Fold:
Amino acid sequence: MQLVVLAGGVGGARFVRGLRALVRRDRPGAAITVIANTGDDLWLAGLRVTPDLDSLMYALAGVNDEERGWGRAGETERVSAELTAYGVGWPWFTLGDLDLGTHIARTSLLKDGLPLSAVVERLTTRWPLGVRLLPATDDEVETHVRTAEGTMHFEEWWVRTRAALPALGFEQRGVERATAAPGVPEAILGADVVLIAPSNPVVSIGTILGIPGVREALEATSAPVVGLSPVIGGAVVRGMGDACLSAIGVATDAAAVARHYGARSAGGLLDGWLVDTVDEDAVEGLTAAGIATRAVPLRMTDDDATAAMAQAALDLAASR
Structure:
């Protein structure tokens, strides 16, 4: 069985880790391909930083900081302190020393002429991730946020302002010139099931879908496409995703996010959708709208709970 997951950073990493646990336990012949958002990527202090790819790699390798949810465990920050002393980089965007090693290695390989997908393959050989990790594109596509105080990179809006400045809109710079990374369309077209992780619908999944070639592959694939809601009981599970949703006129509501993606039968994305049990009242309306919907527990409290979510998604896919 070929499983493909579209995912963002921390939430996507937790979901993929649970899916991997399910596959290892119950479906040892299944293969997982993860297509990761690259819209958060940026150049900083001369280094190419890829936050979502790194969150996925570290979490699957078991070397991530579980308490913070991002970065490496056991970090020190001496190099970042030195950069701040020199007035280089963003003092509020602290990169740990181990993490900087990843960024230096990536930048070196990119400057040697390797595309990002080849760099990711090279870096991930260090650990047995149990999945194939692909960037959505090899091209530089960076998300910027329009605010009343000007336009800034998404990471500045997210980390420095904590999304407190109302977003007036999002720009995926370079997206019109980008193409899907090698292996991305092929993975989607060859999938048995495509899963949309409970990641930010606007700046994570939305950016992936905006890469030319990705949506077209999703429209053409024979695989059922099933998503899991990142909103439970009217609140985002993690982060400030509600600020992103409100900026594009979508309510912070499990049913509203499903309708934002749309029913595949009506030109949208989804064949199926999972909501949490507290949002069970959304099931009937979404199903009537062409999106087969079930209510199951969606709190990713641990790998077992997340594996149960993944199993529910595969069960829904099998019923299509």
